[in-house]
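Lab manual, section 2.4: Encoding a predicted structure.

Procedure: take the sequence of the chain (226 residues), apply the prediction step described in section 2.3, and record the output as structure tokens. A sample record is shown.
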Amino acid sequence: MASGVAVLPLGKRGLTRRGRTRRLRAMARPSLKTRMRLLDAARATFCHRGYEGASVAEIAARARVTKPALYYHFGSKAGLYEALVVENLDERWRRMRAAAESQGSLEDRLTRVIEACFRHARENREGTRICFAALFAAPGEVPRRLSFMRRGRRNFDLVLKLMREGKRRGELRRDLDAYDLAAAIYSRVIANALAQAVSGSSARLTKARAAVRLFLQGALRDGSGR
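Recorded output:
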């Protein structure tokens, strides 16, 4: 060539864009698997030993990785603990949000929200237990930067939104406050999650609709317009 620079065929000189993408994906898969193994190992360790009782060495050994691998993915034991808490709270919120945004009456949607929370607590007992332990921990027992209140508030706000919509559509009594209604039913959700985390009991999903019906008996608007 005029420039004096030889152009080698692709494959000898380098990868195509598609080839580079495939290589990056292949490299990312082991890294993702390592991260998931660390989360699984940490969940079991923190659940049974607590934050202070769990060691980086034990978690790494259980995950069958090195301690540098743990530090690479999470930075520290505190970072790993925070990742577990965030993972649990975010997954619960995603399930509850999907249920709240579904179609149907107030009773149907509220039932789906509670079912989503029941199911999440049942399927993620260790993670739920860690969240409650961290929430009620004494100062200094867990990392200080955990943002429980903001993430927990999102779940409550979903229920509050349903109560406000129910009042706006005339499904709920006008003399009842939407915030008080949301607090009352949400406390039932939290009580169930706590019971499953502490005792290992599992609420049947059929109880979700029964709980909603019992709650709404005094809140639904009657023929008198109340």
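Check your result against the sample. The CA atoms of residues 142 and 219 lie 40 Å apart.
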